[in-house]
């Protein structure tokens, strides 16, 4: 069921990197609860983030890093 609900949002301190924070954000959402899309900024365009998103079966909505020809896989 697609609800369009935003489940988590994080405003973080500068000493926490975005890629590490993503896994913690997904943790409280039950694994059997489907996630359609996970968005982030260019800082989330890492293998770590793309792997965490793929594990949840979601589609990433993350812009490419400057100068990058394609999304990370």
Search tags:
about 70 residues, alpha+beta
Show the helix and strand layout.
Layout: H1 18-26, E1 37-39, H2 47-55, E2 59-61
Parallel strand pairs: 1-2
What is the overall number of helices?
2
- SSE-based structural type: alpha+beta
Strand fraction equals 5-15%
Overall average pLDDT = 80
Main beta sheet strand tally, sense and closure: 2 strands, parallel
Helix content: 10-25%
Order of helices and strands: HEHE
Quaternary structure annotation = single chain
Note poorly predicted spans: none
Query: How far apart lie the N and C ends?
Result: 27 Å
Using only C-alpha atoms, the radius of gyration works out to 12 Å
Strand order of the biggest β-sheet: 1-2
Structural features, described:
The chain is of the alpha+beta class and 73 residues long. It has a domain at 18-61. The protein is 25% helix and 8% strand. The protein contains 2 helices and 2 strands. It has a two-stranded parallel sheet with strand order 1-2. β1 (37-39), α2 (47-55) and β2 form a beta-alpha-beta unit. It is globular and about 35 Å long. It starts with 17 loop residues before the first helix and ends in a 12-residue tail after the last strand. The mean pLDDT is 80.
């Amino acid at each position: 069921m697609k609800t369009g609900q935003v489940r988590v949002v994080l405003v973080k301190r500068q000493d926490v990197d975005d890629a590490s924070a993503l896994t913690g954000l997904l943790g409280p959402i039950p694994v059997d609860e489907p996630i359609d899309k996970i968005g982030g900024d260019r800082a989330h365009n890492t293998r770590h983030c793309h792997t965490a998103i793929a594990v949840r079966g979601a589609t990433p909505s993350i812009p490419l890093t400057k100068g990058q020809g394609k999304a990370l896989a």
